[in-house]
Design a protein that fits this description.
oxidoreductase activity; 5 strands; signal; membrane; alpha+beta; Glutaredoxin
Length: about 270
């Protein structure tokens, strides 16, 4: 007689066990997602729901972890906007974009924007802890204690016309006047909401700056295109010292990648002096 084969019985997990497994998977996914978010935050990446303003280093990315003083001096020598010479004991470089919010925070003339970035960025003039580094740099430059160079790199995307205005102003000895005007709340709005790198809006830029710089001269300079290629030269110099975002500062060979408070830079400055 042929032996009858018994049917195979497959055990189906109970609904209770199934629910437990689902809960474990959901919790695990949440944990991994949270871990990824934290890693991206620490790396300076852009993560939905995480505000960049909470980062002490702003938006700068460092392509090169180590830069020598000779490299910094070469970048200084190649820059257009510079004060002093590379033989100073203290050599300072700022890599910036006048449309970049963190650059405005560092410039110290747009207090309302600083407040929006969180408590750590509130200016001392407004009762906060943040000492904007650019005014302190200017003091050292004016006193003859430091040499300073300004380099452009597109950290926010709308700073080309503003930077060319800086170049035009520098050739007439008006860099700081035009710089400080464009680094106000009104200047931020002008570049990001209206001009947006549009070369046909040179008149608008010139009129905004009329109290600081002759508007006819500014419009003529911007329209000439004489500084169009200079933007790319600055970007290349910034990359040569490892900066591909803004703001980025150098105190001699010490890099400060982001919108650091001057308090964080002082020890490096004092050591150089």
């Amino acid at each position: 007689m042929e032996k009858r084969q018994e049917p195979v019985i497959v055990q189906v997990p109970s609904m209770k066990l199934f629910h437990v497994v689902v809960v474990i998977l959901v919790v695990g996914a949440f944990f991994l997602g949270s871990l990824w978010t934290k890693v991206e935050f620490l790396k300076g990446g852009s993560v939905a729901g995480v505000q960049q303003a909470a980062q002490p280093t702003g938006t700068t990315q460092q392509a090169e972890p180590k830069v020598t003083l000779d490299t910094v001096k070469q970048a200084f020598a190649g820059s257009l906007i510079k004060f002093g010479d590379a033989n100073k004991k203290l050599l300072l470089i700022e890599v910036a974009d006048p449309s970049c919010p963190y650059c405005h925070a560092s410039a110290g003339h747009n207090g309302a924007l600083n407040k929006q970035m969180g408590d750590r960025f509130v200016l001392t003039a407004d009762g906060g802890p943040y000492v904007a580094p650019v005014p302190e740099i200017k003091k050292l430059v004016d006193s003859g204690s430091a040499a300073f160079a300004y380099l452009y790199t597109p950290g926010h995307g709308n700073g080309e016309m503003g930077t060319k205005a800086f170049y035009c102003a520098f050739e007439k000895g008006k860099f700081w006047d035009v710089h400080d005007k464009l680094m106000t709340s009104e200047g931020y709005s002008l570049l990001n909401d209206s001009v947006k790198n549009d070369k046909t809006k040179s008149e608008e830029v010139a009129q905004f700056l009329k109290d600081e710089f002759n508007p006819q001269d500014m419009k003529s300079c911007l329209d000439s295109g004489k500084y169009d290629a200079r933007l790319g030269e600055d970007i290349a110099l910034a990359r040569s010292i490892g900066v591909s975002g803004t703001p980025g500062f150098f105190v001699n060979a010490t890099a400060f990648a982001g919108a650091y408070s001057w308090k964080d830079m002082e020890s490096a400055v004092n050591a150089a002096l």
